[in-house]
Amino acid sequence: MKTFDLSLYLVLDPELCSDIGMIETARAAVAGGATMVQLRDKGADTASLIETGRALKTMLAGSGALLIVNDDVNAAVAIGADGLHIGQDDIDVSTARLMIGPDMILGLSVETEALAAAINPALVDYAGAGPVFATPTKPDHKQPIGYEGLARLVALAPVPTVAIGGLKAEHVEAVLGTGAGGLAVVSAICGTADPETAATRICLDIKRFRL
């Protein structure tokens, strides 16, 4: 049984994090309560991802936060990451599971009710549901689904879900109210003046909702 906490899922963006870097942004966010960190760098090759990912893994050791690699299965395996996250247009789920083995966490992006319902829980551990809102950090994203669409995806998915897409601290209550297991954020932490404080604020809002 895999154990993971989707509450505050940080997706790193190399451009937004450029002032202090992805490693320091992740360190600060985890200090503020981030539970999972995804390494997403569409412009990097596998070797560069492995280098950054190994540095992240070293930094996260002992923190309790888990490291997820976006898209690049070879990098995820080489890093010894806690998980891999793939989209619908990336490597297929069965192949990804075969390559990462049974123990690594596998996340899958879903944008529609049909995709959410079609998830195979024997292969996929969690779903990234969205985009809830439009976001400039992923200009090729699908049509935003809003809170009502998110609630439908959460209800249909046979695995835990993390909401993504333009989410900020002020969205915590509405997102968690759909039954989602947490929020995946990018610009709400990356590129802020104080990533630790930004993460702390979101975590406090999550804790208040769950009281």
Automatic annotation (TrEMBL):
Domain Thiamine phosphate synthase/TenI: 8-189
Classification via InterPro entries: Aldolase_TIM, ThiamineP_synth_sf, ThiamineP_synth_TenI, TMP_synthase
Any one Gene Ontology cellular component term annotated for this protein: cytoplasm
UniProt cofactor(s): Mg(2+)
Binding locations of 4-amino-2-methyl-5-(diphosphooxymethyl)pyrimidine: Q38, L39, R40, D41, K42, N70, S109, K138
Cofactor annotation comment: Binds 1 Mg(2+) ion per subunit.
Protein EC: 2.5.1.3
Metal-binding listed as a keyword: yes
Annotated residues for binding of 2-[(2R,5Z)-2-carboxy-4-methylthiazol-5(2H)-ylidene]ethyl phosphate: T135, P136, T137, G166, V186, S187
Any one GO molecular function term: thiamine-phosphate diphosphorylase activity
Protein keywords: Magnesium, Metal-binding, Thiamine biosynthesis, Transferase
Domain of life: Bacteria
GO BP term, example: thiamine diphosphate biosynthetic process
Pathway it works in: Cofactor biosynthesis; thiamine diphosphate biosynthesis; thiamine phosphate from 4-amino-2-methyl-5-diphosphomethylpyrimidine and 4-methyl-5-(2-phosphoethyl)-thiazole: step 1/1
Residues that, per the record, bind Mg(2+): D71, D90
Entry's family note: Belongs to the thiamine-phosphate synthase family.
This protein's name: Thiamine-phosphate synthase
Annotated gene: thiE
